[in-house]
């Protein structure tokens, strides 16, 4: 089965790649989860749009990484709103995608969730936290954020 990936898939490819996979893997995993679309002539034209969106989020060079790090250092008011119990414990945990969405909502730069380094112990309580973001091979930024009750 010939598919076009719409998201990065481990050990298979990145968004925009045209891949050949077994029928069951494509029908039962990739297509239902929205990780790929069937490769047709019209869909191959969409590959360019997928690659453009991916390039817009990617860090271009070391100077761009420094610029993004400066934006992150100056960014304030990043809040991740979560559902909580009466005791203050949250339902589930804060994910990297939640942090990316909160940074974008606070007016920060677009980030890729795979570059965010969450602490080993999951974030499961309200409070202030700091996580690292790998922007480039040599450049690491920090995001300060608060987990608040929604």
From TrEMBL:
- Which residue range or ranges hold the Ribosomal protein L9 domain? 13-40
Coiled-coil regions, chain positions: none
What superkingdom heads the lineage? Bacteria
Does Thylakoid show up as a keyword for this record? no
| One Gene Ontology term from the biological process aspect of the record | translation
For this UniProt record, the keywords arranged alphabetically read as follows: Ribonucleoprotein, Ribosomal protein, RNA-binding, rRNA-binding
| Ribonucleoprotein in keyword set | yes
Recorded GO cellular component terms are: ribonucleoprotein complex; ribosome
Parts of the chain that traverse the membrane: none
InterPro entries attached to this UniProt entry: Ribosomal_bL9, Ribosomal_bL9/RNase_H1_N, Ribosomal_bL9_bac/chp, Ribosomal_bL9_C, Ribosomal_bL9_C_sf, Ribosomal_bL9_N, Ribosomal_bL9_N_sf
GO MF terms on file?
rRNA binding; structural constituent of ribosome
Q: Name one Pfam family in it.
A: Ribosomal_L9_C
Q: What does this protein do?
A: Binds to the 23S rRNA.
Q: Which HAMAP family match?
A: Ribosomal_bL9 (MF_00503)
Q: Which family does it belong to?
A: Belongs to the bacterial ribosomal protein bL9 family.
Q: What is this protein called?
A: Large ribosomal subunit protein bL9
Provenance organism: Corynebacterium epidermidicanis
The encoding gene is rplI
